[in-house]
Design brief:
Layout: H1 3-22, H2 27-30, H3 47-83, E1 89-90, E2 93-94, H4 102-113, E3 117-126, H5 130-137, H6 140-149, E4 156-161, E5 164-168, E6 173-183, E7 186-195, E8 203-217, E9 223-235, H7 244-275, H8 277-285, H9 292-305
Antiparallel strand pairs: 1-2, 3-9, 4-5, 5-6, 6-7, 7-8, 8-9
């Protein structure tokens, strides 16, 4: 038999074998739920090549789904941010509310738009240099400890994370304070707290506090800080929901008194630091002392305050 004849015979035999599979009882063995994913090996394709094409298509489809989800989420976020608009003017004072994070805006806006009480205090003048005022403002535990040790109040404060503090005024009000925004002239805070008293039922609520500060000179030419504070408070008590209109005046006076008392305590601290810096330093270092970095700052600040002739000298630097 010639080589050409042998080749034709082999091809014919192979064709017959393949054709026999079409009607063969083994056809059911080949059928598979994944048949559409199997490449046709008789057309020169390999199994690996087919799997590669399937995986590529699956990956592209997944990527399209992820991108679509991101677009929808981003659009929803922008739409929500636009719906949580906060006016820049509050009690006649402009605040940079356009600079706060949009997520914060959507937490503050319901309190501002649906407040139970709104208060404005100031402008009030605190007899402290701007550097010392800001240092104590941004470190509530230090300010509270000094006020407590100098018998200016029963304040307590603890750090609960970056820009997050727990506070207690010693007169029934306590809660968490979170810093929302800060720059050299403004602070915006979010508060959640409770108030217990004999005149009111236990009150649970949220508040937004906006603070504007400006460095000024007092009548003697010494440095001071002028502060204006605007606050919005909203009650969260379901039990008191129907009594809000009746309780609003009483709650408003309570909130105003608390804020005023806090500002007055800061003013008294500033006056005490000027009048008796040695006593302030003693209380700061009396066991248990304040943290070393706070004691170092106070030493430098008190030394400057006790020598008015040096008030134009080097300011203490917060670290």
């Amino acid at each position: 038999m010639s080589g050409g004849a042998a080749s034709r015979l082999l091809i014919k035999s192979a064709s017959g074998v393949l054709a026999s599979f079409r009607g063969s009882p083994y056809r059911s063995w080949y059928v598979s739920p994944f048949r559409s994913l199997r490449p046709c090996l008789w057309n020169g394709a390999s199994w690996r090549a087919g799997v590669g094409r399937v995986r590529t298509a699956t990956f592209l489809n997944s990527l399209r789904g992820i991108l679509a989800l991101l677009l929808v989420t981003t659009w929803s976020g922008h739409a929500q941010a636009e719906s949580c608009h906060i006016a820049p003017q509050h009690a006649g004072v402009a605040f940079p509310v356009d600079r706060i994070d949009p997520a914060w805006g959507c937490r503050l806006q319901p309190i501002i738009d649906d407040f139970t009480t709104a208060n404005k205090i100031g402008p009030t003048r605190t007899p402290l240099s701007e550097s010392v005022y800001v240092y104590l403002l941004d470190r509530p535990p230090v300010a509270a400890a000094l006020m407590n040790r100098l018998d200016l109040g029963l304040y307590k404060a603890e750090t609960r994370g970056p820009g997050r503090y727990w506070g207690d005024d010693g007169e029934g009000t306590m809660g968490l304070v979170e810093l929302v925004y800060q720059d050299p002239h403004y602070r915006l805070y979010y508060l959640e707290g409770t108030h217990h008293s004999t005149l009111l039922p236990n009150i649970i609520g949220k508040a937004v506090v906006m603070l504007r500060m400006e460095a000024v000179k007092d009548a003697t030419g010494r440095e001071a800080v002028e502060t204006t504070l605007v606050s919005y408070t909203r009650l969260d008590n379901p039990v008191l929901a129907g009594l809000v209109s009746l309780l609003r005046p009483l709650v408003g006076r309570t909130v105003s008194r608390k804020l005023t008392k806090g500002i007055e305590a800061v003013n008294q601290l500033g006056l005490e630091m000027r009048r008796d810096p040695d006593r302030v330093l003693f209380e700061a270092t009396d066991p248990p002392p304040l943290p070393p970095e706070d004691v170092a700052f106070l030493k430098q600040a008190l030394a400057t305050m006790s020598h008015p002739s040096n008030m134009h000298g080097k300011e203490p630097v917060a670290r």
